[in-house]
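Project channel, design review

CF: Before we commit to the Thauera aminoaromatica constructs, I'd like one complete example in the thread so the newer folks can see what an input/output pair looks like. Taking Branched-chain amino acid ABC transporter permease.
RD: sounds good, go ahead.
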Amino acid sequence: MLAFVQVLASGVAIGCVYGLVALSFVLIYKATETVSFMQGDLLMLGAFAALGLHAFAGWPLVAAAVAAVLAVGVLGAVLERAVLRRALGQPHLVAVLLTFGLGMMMRGGVASVPAAAQDMHRLPFAADTLAIGPLVLAASHLWVIAATVLLAGLLAAFFRHTRTGLALRACSEDARSAALMGIPVARMHTLAWALGAALAAVAGLLLAPITFVHLNMGFIALKAFPAAVLGGLTSLPGALVAGIFLGVAEALAGLALPEGTKDFVPYVLLLAALLLFPQGLGGARGRA
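CF: and here is what came back for Branched-chain amino acid ABC transporter permease:
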């Protein structure tokens, strides 16, 4: 029973990371109708940026983390203004390939640093364990869950109670009508890319104490994308819930099934869900 609870906590924690990356996919897609395949590379870049500022520049860890998230968010905005905006009016595949190419460039840039390409690093936080009677839980898992709950609450408040958040939602629902109402649609698109990039960076920071910081950590986006699809690619709450669901299912599969089976569980569940719910799990509830 204790092992089950530990595995469940681990699954919820990694599912929260899946959910945050899925949120970044959905946020960009809702606003721009573009699937961004550079989210995993932005995740990796955010983790390495925080690591570099803390370990090599001597910044306090909190300051390094905040600066890394802001820097990756600014990078997302710059890439939208300088590169991705040029794909407007082109076939959707053009923007998808642009994001793929930009992600490869980021990965190549980090790989050009020998220490980043060859070693695995750990950000020095949440490395302890928490004992609750006979139950021992990793502090990193609890930290990830708490941070995800807090971030989800902040995002909900932003989209429901701020003028900018409401304007971004309006653009996501109907950009043409939003423009007629005086909302600067182009700026909202830039904001969506910035928020999506920043969310990916946050996911990277939360993933760092679980899997270390390394060049291939961005591949987790390949498991987060099914969560976005399960949410219907239009539902922010659906993406987060689907991410947690996939994380738990993957962890339980690792406990009950042969080794290696858990790696394809998210895709099996995705295929099953698409057959049963073609609009995604969030489609029946409408858009977020």
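RD: helpful, thanks. The first strand starts at residue 129 and ends at 132.
CF: DSSP finds twelve helices and two strands in the chain.
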